[in-house]
Structures are given as C-alpha cells and as structure tokens.
Structure to design on (268 residues):
C-alpha cells in the first residue's frame, strides 16, 4: 500500500509554462468549449493565445460569443470561428451581422439545456430528456442554423425526438464533447483541481467537463483543501498560471455608475 507521500508523486503535475504550450495540438477546425458568462470569468489569456496561434475554422460552444472587441469577439471579428453553439447573441453586433449574413453557423440552445449538455458530455451521458423547448422551434425544428447572404434561411435545425413521461412531453438533447475546453479559475493546484470565484462558477466547470483536453488558466497556484475544490483535476489536463497583471485584467461589459447623493463626495 502506498503512503500519502507516495501518492503525491504518482499524481501528475499539469502546470505548463506558456500559453503556446497550453494550446499545443490546437488545429484548424477544432472545437472549443469556453467558460464564462459575457466577459465574467472568461479565459482571456487563452483566448488571446488562440488568436495569436492563427488557428481558424473553429467551432465554439459557450454561453455567448463575447462582445465586440472583447473575449471571443476578438476571434469572431477575425473570421476564425465557423460555428457557434450558444444561448445568447445580444451585445455583439458582429456576431449578429455574421449570423444574419450567412458567414457563421449558429445553434441557439436554451441556457439551461446548454449547461446540462456540457455537463452530460463530461459525465459520459450521451443524451437526456428535458421539458425546455417543447412546443417551440427548439423541439419542432426550423431554427435558422445558417442564412443566405440575403437573409433567407439556408439551413434550418431538424426536429428533435419528443417523448412523453408521466403525461408530460420532453425533448431529447444530446451531450456535448469538444476537442478542447478553455476555462478560468480563481485558484488551482498543480494537479488541476480548481476553485472558481462567484459568477465565474457558472459555465466554467461545465465547459471544463466537456473538453477532451481541458486547459485552465488560474489566477493563483496554491495547495487546496479537498473540501474547497469545485472541479476535480480529473477533468483538467493543463494548468497555466497567470501573472499578477494578467489575473487583474478583468473587463466589464457595461460599467454603470451613479452620482453620489448631494453633499457627499465633496471636499470643503
């Protein structure tokens, strides 16, 4: 029987030195699950490294596709993305332009279904039934996947299987597996165990589960108490440790401020 110290040697150190090493094997046409919500919790350094790599024609699975000039929007504007599976298009005019102009294939999926499809794929579940989307084009088919340049529908989504359970209809959704997953965590250890902060815990763990090769950029490399781990390292193959400057570089989609009440904020 191994001692605890012997087990620590057996566990593989997954830290890589550079973003280029983190993305080794990424190729044209590969698929990527990307964590984050808008610009919250996105793997900015890995997205930039993917842009710098020149890889193109990729498929992206993410809640949305960044914003104009930020996040995945950088890859989108460069024409590097061929297909997007997402639940939201808003706040990205270039995303909408490419989709409506026939330059981009888009599979729109209810947000909860998208989250569960990523989780299911990572858990080895090929498909599941859900009531979300029943009685709509999500289940019945006809959602535009791709448009002609004139705006007419070139390719529409096919109908999905619907079955009744306990007198209620459910639509069949398939789990998602991707070639890579790119995620961001607040803390991680050398073995790929991750902790996410606040809203970054939404799609990041699910995206990480779906990737065959999952790369996590972490703001802090540290020892973790097993009880605080949000995602076990079995789902993570590579860990990229951010510099303090990279960790602090967090964009805000819509900065909203208000004037202080009268009499406050002044110097007499």
């Amino acid at each position: 029987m191994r001692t605890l110290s012997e087990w620590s040697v057996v566990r593989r150190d997954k830290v890589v030195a550079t973003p280029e090493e983190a993305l080794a094997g990424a190729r044209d046409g590969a698929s990527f699950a990307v964590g984050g919500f808008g610009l919250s919790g996105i793997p900015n350094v890995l997205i930039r490294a993917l842009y710098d790599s020149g890889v193109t024609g990729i498929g992206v699975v993410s809640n949305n596709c960044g914003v104009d000039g930020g996040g995945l929007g950088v890859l989108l504007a460069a024409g590097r993305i061929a297909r997007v599976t997402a639940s939201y298009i808003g706040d990205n005019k270039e995303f909408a332009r490419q989709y409506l102009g026939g330059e981009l294939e888009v599979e729109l999926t209810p947000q909860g279904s998208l989250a569960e499809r990523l989780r299911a794929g990572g858990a080895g579940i090929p498909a599941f039934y859900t009531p979300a989307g029943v009685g709509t084009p999500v289940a019945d088919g006809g959602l535009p996947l791709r448009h002609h340049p004139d705006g007419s529908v070139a390719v529409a989504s096919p109908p999905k299987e619907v079955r009744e359970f306990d007198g209620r209809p459910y639509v069949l959704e398939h789990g998602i597996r991707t070639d890579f997953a790119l995620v961001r965590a607040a803390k991680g250890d050398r073995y790929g165990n991750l902790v996410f902060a606040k809203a970054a815990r939404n799609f990041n763990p699910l995206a990480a589960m779906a990737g065959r090769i999952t790369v996590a950029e972490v703001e802090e490399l540290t020892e973790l108490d097993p009880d605080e781990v949000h995602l076990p390292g079995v789902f993570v193959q590579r860990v990229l440790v951010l510099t303090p400057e990279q960790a602090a570089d967090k964009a805000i989609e819509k900065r909203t401020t208000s004037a202080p009440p009268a009499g406050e904020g002044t110097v007499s």
